């Protein structure tokens, strides 16, 4: 990310057009999406195609990370040829990003295998998601407020990770959270979920994280916007 003043939108699992209507269309606003664009809802194909188009048109303003749904095992629901093309693209998507040198962004969570950021850079692309290991952890793991070891990613692990890599925050998606966002580990990790009323089964709100950076000196301001679900009567 640039060291110039920037407003960066962190977007979890998505309701795409509502986000653009509220926060602005690229390139007026910069976006970093945290994954899970397909396999849920009626407009998965339209959603991912629009994201890819914006990425092609505004490569310096629009960033797309891979989620656990962006893999062959969960997206084989369409014409075989189309499915193969999409999975080929999913296998090349980046896994993580660091905003302003201080916010580590990933779809799932941390991993005991993540000793150095170079380990992420060393993940080959294209790559299918394995059943275990670093890539699987980054896309699938969830934090826990009560766990005491890596099995459930406890708060001590988050603190150790942020201190080791000189980070202020870990931002991730992957989980439905009722308020649209939820902090863990003494506010060193936040889950952002941007799809309200998820699959019609959860009464969750929709949130976006607006990360304001100003360099130098570096200041980070994280705020959250709530999007109300609009109900249209027929």
Descriptive report:
- It is a single chain.
- It is built from seven helices and ten strands.
- It is α/β, with parallel strands linked by helices and 234 residues long.
- The protein has one domain (3-200): Purple Acid Phosphatase, chain A, domain 2.
- It has a five-stranded mixed β-sheet. Strands 4-5-6-8-7 form a five-stranded mixed β-sheet.
- The relative contact order is 0.17.
- Residues 1-5, 197-207, 211-221 and 226-234 have low confidence and may be disordered.
- Its EC number is 3.1.3.16.
What would the keywords be for this entry?
single chain, 234 residues, alpha/beta, Purple Acid Phosphatase, chain A, domain 2, five-stranded mixed β-sheet, 7 helices, 25% helix, globular, disordered N terminus, protein serine/threonine phosphatase activity, PP1_catalytic_subunit, Calcineurin-like_PHP, hydrolase, Ser/Thr-sp_prot-phosphatase
Q: Which value, in Å, is the CA radius of gyration?
A: 17 Å
**Got a strand count?**
10
Main CATH class: Alpha Beta
Distance between the termini: 45 Å
Subunit organisation of the chains: single chain
Q: Output the strand order for the largest sheet.
A: 3-2-1-9-10
Percentage of residues in strands: 15-25%
User: Which fold name fills CATH's third level, the topology?
Assistant: Purple Acid Phosphatase, chain A, domain 2
Number of domains: 1
- Order of helices and strands, N to C? EHEHEHHEEHHHEEEEE
Q: Provide the CATH architecture.
A: 4-Layer Sandwich
Biggest sheet features: 5 strands, mixed
Give the integer mean of the pLDDT values: 76
Q: Tell me the CATH superfamily.
A: Metallo-dependent phosphatases
| Coarse shape | globular
Low-confidence stretches: 1-5, 197-207, 211-221, 226-234
Enzyme class: hydrolase
Pfam families: Metallophos
GO cellular component, one term: cytoplasm
Protein name: Serine/threonine-protein phosphatase
